[in-house]
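Note on ligand handling. Small-molecule inputs were canonicalized before submission; formal charges were left as drawn, and no protonation-state enumeration was performed. Where a ligand contained multiple stereocentres, the stereochemistry in the source SMILES was retained. For zinc ion, this procedure yielded the string shown in the input block below.
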Amino acid sequence: MDYKSLIINKSALKRIFYIYIPLAAAIYFLLLGAAWLTDKPPSPPLALEQSFDGKLPIVYDENYNMGFFCLENLHHFDTAKYRKIHDALVAAQAVKPEQFIPAAIPDRKMLEIAQTPEYLDSLSSSVTLARIIEVNVLKFFPSHLSNNLILQPMLYQTGGSLLAARAALKSGWAINLGGGFHHAARDKGEGFCALADISLIVKYLRQEKLAQKIMIVDFDAHQGNGFGRDFTGDSDVFIVDAYNKDVYPKDSDAKRGIDVAVELDAFTGDTEYLQKLRKGLDRAFAEFTPDFIIYNAGTDILAGDPLGALDISPKGVAARDELVFGKALDAKIPVVMLLSGGYQKTNAQVISDSILNLKDKFKIF
Ligand SMILES: [Zn+2]
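Structure output:
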C-alpha cells in the first residue's frame, strides 16, 4: 500500500484552515446579514373587498421589485421592470402615485385555493426557488434570504393579481403591473413562476361566485402550461394561447387544455402575428361567451428577446393589447391584464406606452 498518498500535504491543510474555512464563514455571515437587511415590514392584510375609491384600476406595489443585488447580472430578468412602468406612467402624468392600488400578500388559506399545501411548503427551500427561477447559486442562500429576495415579490404580485381581478369587476378593466405566472400549476412551479396567480384568480372568482365562465387569453411568447394543466377538461375555462412553438415549455400534456392554440414559428413578425391573433380571438368568442377575461400580456414577444424568439415591434405590442381590450370592452366583459414575461431592459417603456395607448384609444381613464 502506498502510505504516502494518505499523508495530507501540510500546506494544503494550512490553506483549508487559514483560507477556505474563514472565507466560507465570512460568506455565510454576509448572507445572514443580507437576509436581515432585506427584511421588510409585514404585509398588510389583502383587502379584496375594498371600494377602490380614489384609485385607478392599476395595481402596483414597490414590493414587486426584486432585490437581486448583483445577482441580477446572472439572470435575464429586469428586476426593476415594475418600478420603471410605474415611474413612466407617473412621468406621463397619466396616473398620480396615490391613484395606484397598492398590493398585499394573500394569506396561506387563499393560496391553498389554487396550490397544494405540500407544494407551498416546498417554497420555503432555497433549492426549490433556485430551480424555479433558474439561478443556480441561489440554492446556497439561507432560506430567509431567498424568501425575502424572490418569494416575497412574487407573493405581492399574486395579491396584486387578485386585487386587479376585483377592480376589473368594478371598472370593466384592470391592470396588474406584475403577475402572470403562467408556468406555475397547482403542484409545481417552473420557468420563473412559483405561484399560480392565474389559476388562483379563476378559482377565487368561482369560489366567491363572482364569475363562472372564464376565458384565459395568453399572448406571452411561451405556452401557458401551468393553467393549461390546471384546467384541462374544465368546460367553464376557455383557453386561447398564442405562443412560439419552437421554445420552452413544449408541454404536450398541457396542450390538451388549450381550446384555441395559435402556434407561431420562431421570429414571426407583426403582420402575421396580429392576423393570427385576431383570427384566434374571433374563433374563441364565437365558441365561448365568458363572464370574465384574464389577459396574460407577456412582452417577451418583442424582437430581440432571448427567450421569446419572436420578432414583434413595440407598435405590434400596443396593437395586440388594443385588440384584446377592444374585444373585451366591446362585449362589456371585465378584463384583467397581467404583465407576465418580458426579459429586456426596454420592456418597461414598451408596456407603459401600450397602457397609454389603451388610455387614448378607449378613454378608459
Ligand atoms: Zn414568456
